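Hi support team,

I'm filing this because I wasn't sure whether my run with adenosine monophosphate finished correctly. The job status page said complete, but I'd like someone to confirm that the output block is well-formed before I use it downstream. Pasting the exact inputs I used:
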Amino acid sequence: MASQQEATPALNLVMLGPPGAGKGTQAERISRTRQLPKISTGDILREAVHNSTPLGCAAKEAMEAGRLVGDDVMIGIVQERLDRADARQGFVLDGFPRTIVQARALDRMMDGRGPLVVLDIVVPEEVLVRRLATRRICDQCGSNAAVDWLNVCGKCGGKLVARVDDGVDIVRERLGVYHRQTKPVVEYYEGRPTFRLIDGNLPPDVVTGAIDAALGEAAARGVHL
Ligand code: AMP
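And here is everything the job wrote out:
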């Protein structure tokens, strides 16, 4: 008889969307409510830079310039992370894949693991630029945070700072990189039955509701999307 674990299909979720679309916030929420590991390649790289590891030293320059880190490095990081036991029953990927090469590699990693569910969070460009200009993260734990008058992280008490790559010129570069390299990834997935567009130009709770509704409606039909 199949065990309960085998009977529950894995939710292998990919969050797509431009910088500032709210992928990280929504990924965090889904990860918490569905008890799946959130795998954010940006967070992994920022932690490596913070700790000056060899990966961090190699990635720092590209990140600060708003360019992408090399595909081989990124694919290696994600492969290693998905091989860990906590990702066997599913995961929420935030920030990967960002190129067609990465998307093809992820498909190969999914061999025997069930389909990928892909959500593309859509937000108009002028809204993204505005959001990124006011975004703050904690310089200790890296959490995203709303700017408030205390300027301290609600989770750990660390100082809230602007991300080095959220400056106006770098944001322009990151949005250009998104259009050139990551938009084709949306096209790569959009013909699949497991692909959904989500309107991200709404309050975060409303976006979370739309994502839950999309995932729930599909689960009711016995499939993930
Ligand atoms: P994010 O926090 O997702 O906006 O990522 C911050 C930066 O990390 C990006 O601007 C890239 O320099 C780098 N990065 C994150 N994920 C990837 C990826 N999948 N491929 C290449 N570079 C990445």
